[in-house]
Amino acid sequence: MPQRILQRAAGGALLSGLLLVLRGRRDDGDGAVPLNAISHWLWPRSAFRARGFSARHTVTGALIHFGASCFWSLVFEGRRLLRGAQAPEPRPQEVLRDALALSALAAWVDLKGVPPALSPGFERRLRADSLCLVYLGFAVGLALGELCKAAPRAPRPARLVPSPAQHAPLAAAPPARRAA
To answer: Which of 142, 133, 149, 155 is nearest to 12 (CA)?
Structure first.
């Protein structure tokens, strides 16, 4: 279960993060600006003015973004619990539908449901159409993370158990014969 949650979170965070960068470049002329804005949770005075890549703002913003994706992936996992353990695996269109619904909920919570201090911040730097694409990208990434099963591990080769004769102590060599 934790691997599946992280896999979905990674898919959602990567695709929406890529869209944040691309749309930030288009809307604001700087791809780092939307990620920098997310760091307003820690640096409310400087995050919205920060331009360009920086460890303080961009990396922190990306980590917060990934953490939020983990939270929403955990919420997404709740739908499995509601279906029950015996339910068959959902079809891809059901997974996408559920991911779109969750992303819409996340957008509402992020943009309307929380106080400005807890909002993602990038909504202050992107246009409305860019925000829609970011949340759509989150839904698609979440669904892809769900649908891409982890590669099965290759079975380990069977260990050969040595025979008892291989573990027997070595007998002393017989004394050498003298040639007469």
So the answer is: 142
| 2, 7, 79, 99 from 90: Cα distances, Å | 19, 17, 11, 12
Question: What per-residue confidence (pLDDT) applies to 157?
Answer: 63
* pTM for the model: 0.81
- Dist. CA 96–CA 175, nearest whole Å: 80
What is the rounded CA–CA span in Å between residue 20 and residue 122? 8
Rounded Cα gap, residues 95 and 74, in angstroms? 15
CA-based end-to-end distance of the chain: 79
Q: Measured in whole angstroms, how far is the alpha carbon of residue 145 from the centre of its chain? A: 8
